[in-house]
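=== RUN LOG ===
request id: a7f3
mode: sequence -> structure
chains: 1
length: 146
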Amino acid sequence: MTRCCYPQSDIEAIAKHAKEVSGIVLEELAIFALDVPVDESVSATIKQAIQSYLNSGGSGISLASTWSGVEEQLVLVTPTKVRTVCKKFIIDIDLTISQARNLQTANSQQSKMPPLWTIGAMLYLGKDEIRAVIYNPFWLVFLVSA
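=== RESULT ===
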């Protein structure tokens, strides 16, 4: 979904919040255990690894292909897949941040009024229309009633 970034928008805070939320989603998806209890230390290790990977931009999750201390049938997303998803997310969020910064810069530099020379040109070129409205009562009534 496209987000409008105004000059007062804090892009860094928005990006940090997005990284935190995506880390929480990956933490919840990493181990799938409905009625089987998972050791809290393993769960905390996985959460810490994912958050450090997202915050550091590429290090924190071991190169192992399985989560240590977790049975294979409980794993929904392997560490390899988590690294791939995190890397893709980091690339996407960096692109979005750079686009938002560019848009924010362009919006702050954009003037609300047209240049003065265009206003002068419109007045000069529209003098015949102004004269027609003044001299023709029908146009004057139409202009006042609209």
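=== NOTES ===
The chain is about 65% helix and 0% strand.
The mean pLDDT is 75.
=== END ===
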